[in-house]
Amino acid sequence: MGLLVRLELRRSRWFWLVWIACLWLILPATVSKYEVLMPDPVSARATAASLEHNVTMRAMLGPPFDLLRAGPFTMWRVGTFVAAAAAMMAALGLIRATRAEEEEGRTELLRSGAIGRHAPLAAGLLVSTLGTLVLGLLIAASMAKAAPPASGALAVGLGIALTGLVFVGVAAVAVQLTESARAARFIAMSVLGGAYLVRAVADGSPADSPLVALQWVSPLEWAALTRPYVDERWWVLLLPLALSLLLIGLAVALENRRDLGAGLRPAGLGPATAAPGLRGAWSLAARLDRGAVIGWTVAVVICGIAFGSLGNGMDQMLAANPQLADMMRKMGGGVQQLKDAFYVALVGIMATVLAMLALQLWSRLRHEEQTGGAEALLATGTSRLRLAASHLVPALVVPTVLLALTGALMALPAAMANGDPGFVATVTGGALALAPGIWLVVGIVVLVHGWAGRSRAVAWIGPAVVGWTTFVVWIGPLLDLPGWLQNLQLFGHLPHLPGAPMTWTAVVVQTLVAAALIVVGLVGYRRRDLTVP
Fold this sequence. Notes:
The protein has helices at residues 2-32, 34-37, 41-52, 55-61, 70-97, 99-103, 106-111, 119-146, 150-177, 181-203, 219-225, 238-255, 281-309, 314-319, 322-331, 338-371, 373-378, 384-418, 422-432, 435-451, 457-474, 476-479, 483-486, 504-527. By secondary structure, the chain is mainly alpha-helical. The longest helix has 35 residues, at 384-418. The protein is globular, with a radius of gyration of 24 Å.
């Protein structure tokens, strides 16, 4: 197994290094900005009291236990975000090391040698566990220096590391259930999204509501419930540890019950002849993307309604604290009206999330090329451009429609409460003004895919761009990054509506740049050889 561990570390070293470095730096950087947000004791107490009882902030960030010290404030402000990101890192890393390798045939080649049945899974588990533990230790060490005492820092590091370990187990089970890495990622990310939603509902509920008990159901809450820096409850860490061991044991048991290359849930053979609506590349792409689109639509509806219900009264709460109000204005692209800044900030976050959907829909083409599906289609009368367009159009249209739906649903509660139906159109228009940012990242990945289809850059450049945008949108205002650096992301130069004047120049220029990248990418796609497994 040692050989497989070294092989996986060699293949995935950049994946782990980039993830760990980015997540590690967020917490100590937040500690360094605590004095800016809480400049004096009097205002700090008033701010802490308002934040502790504000359901919006609790639902977004988690339960606050002590906001008058840098350590527990940092855990509340970014701890849950880092724990969720660590869970995503761990799940994707495990799937990358196991199901993806099995799907591409490399595991079968390795298994032809003198290695055990469970050796590839064990190697993936070991590397993924090592990655989460390294992240936890780095966080603990840096927090111990930036925000002592060491016991609180250790609780933060262990809580985040064990959250990641839970999703190592989730991913290990997911790869046994399905025969494709794409489906395994969907299962793992669905569990992660469900855990985050349960946490938000529990934290946003009144203290006397029975829904508060749901805190103990979500693995993403356990790191916060350890209460780092505030009378640490070390026994809570036994929950993620026990669940991870249970899931890993289940994954090993399930692996004994399936064949190599298959999943416990076998893919159906389907009918002998295609349905009338399944006659070409467009209908095939629609069928392949159907599950993802339905899942994302449900998630967008839930998030839009939930975020919208939190909007009423947010401006009054923020107005009581100039520092938090200033941070919200920065998250809202500099919009001065607090209510408008709130909606701009949340729409910007959702636009970044929907950019991930755009990448997912376009990446289906690469998957079809690697598995031979594209070659089979191109052997018929389907042209290269038609094949590419069948995946390109959904990647452009579906996130744009869902972005507009997000804006409408978020604005609906405020419009109903204030009797102003025009507010729905205003926020929806502001959401659509960010659509060129999604189109731009699609243009970038189409360009790379068209001219460098065999390069590893195809797999990471899109997520890297979206990841940087997510960091700037969510963490950048807290770190008070320079304005030019905050604008160096997908949505930085686009108008932030409502609240800011509509500027068509940025919208038109970014749309034209995205269109040019797509055209050049499609030209390259017509000229290059088809990517083969």
